[in-house]
Amino acid sequence: MAWFNPPIPDIIQGIIQEWKDMHPDWEVRVWTECDPLMEPEYREIYDSLEYYCSKSDILSYWLLWKYGGVWSDTDAVPVRRLDPLCNLKGFVGRQYDRKIACGFMGAEQKSPMMKYILTLCRQKFIKIPGRGRCKYGPHLLSSKSVMMRYKSNRYKICPCHYFYITRDRKKCWEWFQKDPVGRKMWMEDKMKKGWMPDRVMPYSVHLWGIDGSSDRKA
Fold first, then answer.
1. Three-state secondary structure along 101-142?
2. Do residues 94 and 147 make contact, with C-beta atoms less than 8 angstroms apart?
3. 3-state secondary structure of 155
4. How far is 215 from 51, CA to CA, in rounded Å?
5. Which of 21, 127, 184, 192 qualifies as a FRET site for 199, CA 20 to 30 Å off?
6. How far apart are CA 39 and CA 42, in angstroms?
7. DSSP string covering 34-64
8. What is the percentage of the chain residues whose pLDDT exceeds 70?
9. Closest by alpha carbon to 95, among 85, 86, 104?
10. What are phi and psi of 213, to 5 degrees?
11. In this structure, are residues 34 and 43 in contact, taking their beta carbons and an 8 Å threshold?
């Protein structure tokens, strides 16, 4: 996770605590700035970007390559433990438009898949300079060459509802504001309505931004 330019809002602190409470045996880390160990060729990309959400894309790919683990955006709220996903080589998830989302993913340490994504980011940075907001996000992760490598690297492409149950921000917040019993009942109702075709509960719910987080500039 990352929240640049602290202080971290109370609502984000609460979400972070939910992750810690659900995974007491995990180390949950929140970056508030770039990791000082990031290599210059990637740090150059990171420093060039205007929006914090864009910086977090580069940071997330690099952290997953360097250390391995799970990356979650700070506006992703846990629903259940991630253990079933941690037996995989790596995983990504589709969002509502079927593109691969960059807000929730996992990888083994020094994953060739993450290294390849970083290499593509570097190539794109050199070929098309600029500070575009979503330049290194879902469009890059959904490109033909990357999609082919998910399969060859044995990555699981999770269905949309695992992390992005709906693009309707109002409905996501409706769930978020309920108590634990209310959240469970909400999910059970949506399962009955066919929101989860494989009958598998989501791992998290993406709130689609908090306090304008996706539009914050560095």
1. CCCEEEECCCCHHHHHHHHHHHHHHHHCCCCCCCCCCHHHHC
2. no
3. coil
4. 7
5. 21
6. 6
7. --TTS-HHHHHHHHH-SBHHHHHHHHHHHHH
8. 96
9. 104
10. -60, -35
11. yes
